[in-house]
Amino acid sequence: MQGPSSDVVREQLERILGSEAFAGAGRHSRVLRYLVERTLAGEGDQLKEYVLGMEVFDRSETYDPRIDSIVRVEVRRLRARLEDYYRGPGAQDPVIITIPRGGYVPVFSTPALQPVSPAAPAESAAPVTAPVGRTGRSSTFATITAAVAVAIVVIVGTLAVSSSREERAEASSRPAMAVLPFEHYSTRPEDGLTAARITDAVTTELARLGTVSVASRTSAARYAGESRLVTAIALALNVTFVMEASAVQTGDSIRVSVRLVHGVLDRKVWVSDYTFTSGEIPTAAQRIASDAAEAAVAYSRR
Length: 302
Description:
The chain is of the alpha/beta class. The protein contains 9 helices and 7 strands.
């Protein structure tokens, strides 16, 4: 079956980008438009992670996808945003744009037509070998309906249990991490507020990634300023990795040093420094969370 034309796909693209679901999604809108236009131009085979990092995310020529996972993270978020759109306002749209997992080339399709049930033959046209009373037909129909209903309940219940087990298994297979409140080593209240903002932002971004299991901000905050062993904190929070960090603010410049500690071995497994301005905290939090999660997953696979 032939897919939708380029003009129809572009109309759908504008419909998506103009929707409330994509309001304020500047980066995701830019990524989606880039992927769609390059694919319509016949350049889908060039949609590689390195190319996206350079042309869409403004990375330099030294960009290394193995270290900086921004493309994978943002496309994963874009994919989820598209799925939410088609579950909501776009449920009746004439064209479906998806980004299959494991790649960056979008797929354009139209909703499958629902099969139309053939009309039931007239009652008089069916050969009747023995008269059946109205009450008998109703009783038989009711029995069949009840049996079908029971079967549906059993199937749905089985699928729900299976799905729940799969979700629990997936959650248990992800590395567990706690983000301790970022230290700031300052007596100025504004520095404390900045450190708290970064802590909250990194914790939130880690949870959004879905590649690691994250202890709640409230639980981790109990250990602010405490000189307890990391192994004790990890045990109390039931996590494998503990993120420690310090934030030093000079004017509008913020320098953050992040350390990922294995809570059982009490060994640093990853260290990185970041410098950014106060206006770049959301973007910096995304990078910190992405890098830390990737480090935790990589170490867990060793």
